[in-house]
Structure of ASPIC/UnbV domain-containing protein:
Amino acid sequence: MRAIFFSLFISVQFFSCQQTVEKQKLFELKSAEETGIDFINEVKETKEFNIHTYRNFYNGGGVAVGDINNDGLPDIYFTSNQHENKLYLNKGNFQFEDITSTAGVGGKKEWSTGVVMADINDDGFLDIYVCNSGGLEGQNKENEVFINNGDLTFSEKGKVLNLDNIGYTTHAAFFDYDQDGDLDCYILNNSFKDPSKIELYKSMRDQPDEAGGDRLMRNDNGIFTDASAEAGIYSSEIGFGLGVAIGDLNQDNLPDIYISNDFWERDYLYLNNGDGTFNEDLTNRINYTSVSSMGADIADINGDGFPEIFTTDMLAGDNYRIKSMVNFDPFHLEDLKYRANYHYQMIQNCLHLNDGDANFQEIALLSGVAATDWSWGALLFDFQNDGTKDIFVANGINKDIMSGDFRDFMSSSDIQKELATSPETFDFAALSEQIPSNPLKNVAYLNQGNLKFSNATDSLGLGTPSFSNGSVYADLDNDGDLDLVVNNVNMPSFVYQNNAETLYKNNYLKVSFKGPKGNSKGLGAKVTIKTPTSMQVMENYMNRGFESSIEPSLIFGLGKESINELKVVWPDGKSQKLTNVQINQTLELDYSQANESIIPKNEAPAKPWFTDITKETIRGNATHLENRYNDFDQEILLTNMLSTEGPRLIVGDANSDGLDDFILLGAKDDPDKLFLQSKDGSFKPGNSKAFLNDKAFESTCGSFLDYDMDGDLDVLIGAGGNQTNVEKINFIVRLYTNDGKGNFTVSPSKIPPAIGNFSTLEVSDYDKDGDPDFFLGARTVPGNYGLGPKSFLFRNDAGTWTDVATDDLGNIGMVTDAIWEDCDQDGDMDLIVVGEWMGIHIFRNNGGIISMSETIPNSTGWWTRIESQDLDGDGDMDFILGNWGENSKFKASTTNPLSLYVNDFDDNGKSEAILNWTAPLDTQSFPFASKMDITMQMPSLKRKNLKYDQFGRMKYQELFETDKVNKAKAFKAENLNTGILWNDGGKFTFKALPVEAQVSPVFGIIAKDFNKDGNIDIWLGGNFYGLKPQVGRHDASKGVLLKGTGNHGFEAVSTKESGISITGQVRDALSFGGKIFIARNNASMVVFE
């Protein structure tokens, strides 16, 4: 009995302790009463001054942290838009004192925005630079510089230092860009210009704006000089700067600059040339940016030593706010912007993954960090001191100015009439009362490794709804973990204490800097630490998030590990290496102890796996030219174009010389091109006259085959495309017979009796009668996405084609690819077919009869390609399958699949396809289409007079009549991963390939032992541009090489190591003659060896 009581007592005590631990959050919100910080950025609209007359009215203020009196405790400065700025002195133990008045730093200008603390005059004390945007008329907006007198008082010296810029300044950054030893200043301005009046067809980027525009101010003996023009900095009126981040992006030990711009203008990426100038090179290194890029931060999120770039935007994470708040441009407008020299943009946060050479892949959707709603500050820091960078995003805007219902209200005839007739007396403040106001949770993501993050906002204690803008992290209580401070609009600021020290007890190292003359705080110093299992690299720059700055020090979380080695590299290249560094302490790095020698240049890279040999291999024009056609004009509900899925490659010995040749298939009005191989391995154009005569066809698939059994290879080419304005004759299969020398003649009397939009043509003598048969897979019914097209299995009966496809095969669905292979090792060829909204279907060959054998369980997906190879050397063939990947808004699983419902919902004689998805913050699915798109496709829905608020809450079943819903044809997709179907003696198991294979849709697959180590490797190519802006371009792949490691394992090889780093949309890839041939949509072929 006593033992039972003791056991019960222990259990109760353990449960009680467990409950206590679970109740304590990582971040604990401290009250104003506890901290003494009572700051509120209060803004109030008036009839004259409001969100309608001043577009940045609710952009909020910033926050800076830094030790202004060198007592070892970071102090806090908040900016206010309509009231006095505030400085709080840290007294220790989370106690702060408002010393604004005695310090003289409240500010005398109007509408303060960003703030940064830096030792501008190099006296060892942090000064405060305050950015201002002025009043309604732009008056009284000079930036202010509060020079620290060393006695907790400051003197304003903006004009003296020539830093009193008069633009609409958002933020500023201090760093030594010209490597002369002192701190220079980048001033980030937001254009005076009304963005609605920007003429998209004019490029104004190179036209300086004398009153506004960004400025790079060089420090010339303590006085700052405008060096923007000579340094290569854009200062135009179309720069709507909202974020500035500094970091060494290309590993040359020079500070580079990333600028976030709002509206149409793209972001800027300035790479430092090392001679006082910059090369703005974003369009060559980043495929697209956020539309309304706001806060920005630079840090290494995957531990490879190369810093990533993270920017925020305004994409909501739930269906309701997406439907009611977000306005996506139509495809044709996006195309117009691009043609007017505006870069591609997406409404989403962007996480740009650095490949080591400052070339980036955008992976926010794959990582799960793309949608955080109306987001401002972005902070990359280690919440738990576990050694990985997590992400905090400050969210919210005081008025939902993008509300669809409010936009409709504003465009009503009554409002527009009053605005037109009485603009001077119009009461905008009263109008603002009509705008919804919904505080939002800030968002916190925990780094899960493998490029993935999980939303842990509530569990971390950061889920209080707010209107947050500027934010910073700092170790306010010197316990070794990073606390959090947030500036809010019209509500108290947030001060969060980080409890990682007590909750996790992880190790850490805090690093401070004693810099050289001119740079007392060591800005720009780069610190690398190595532990037994990992590496971390951090740089000492202060600009973080939105309008905010951190203190000039670093904290490395270590988990349970120790430090093997620490290395610091100072801005001038001097370095110091330390070993056996004590953990859980503050380590001061002193410039005077650094080595005199400049750090050695990077060693020459190892020879890559592949070399680009295109120039010496292709002796002619091997370029695919896509015809211009907008699929969305005819089928508004499509998410992706169906007319840009070429070109494919056909390989065979066309001229009977024993060497493989190839045909590059063409788009409509782009003829197919024959290339003949020479003995030296190069390829030159062959006789393509027959193909030129048939250039009206869109060639989508094909194969060499000896149709007439005369010993040479003839060609079958299938046509397709999604154009609805072409004749049916353009959708036939063509047969070209060969004279044996590579001269082809079309044979219209011998063509198979098939019309359709075909995607794959796979040849095999499956019935073993000595002549070639083929499977012809159909992609879609043009103009009627979702309706089942007719596929064919043509048996060759002495030159006559007979369709012998069973119903299962002929009506299998929207086929994208197929392959003949002996799956069960019974000596005959079986057929595996994949497609969109289809499973992986295996048709067994039983004595020349092809019939459905099995569908791999839970395999429905958006499959794109299939290739075979014995990957594990067990004697049977495995299959590599290309799919849509994970770097997309669309996610699928067996428990939460994507769905598609097809019916003539509006009785207009044409089917509609309703795609349903689950948004990141939702637990149930909704139609993906926007209100505008679905009512344009089905105007009858306008009779319901749906408000955006209503539409955002409606499920598919609520949009249409019950009878239409019940009779709709239903499809689902459970798996979007590219992966391998492992064959174990005829039993199949699917396994996804590593995350690097999921960055983009895959259309090119090659499996081969490239490095001759006995393991099969895999190369994947992909990307897809023809997507609605609501979906976004999928272009993160530069080609992915996966090294086989044995035991069904694969690991990614960097593009630098592989040697293959290509842009564009790969549509096919083949390997023959020891080379890799890659075909791209609307681009030239490339060849690697």
Remarks:
- The two ends are 79 Å apart (CA to CA).
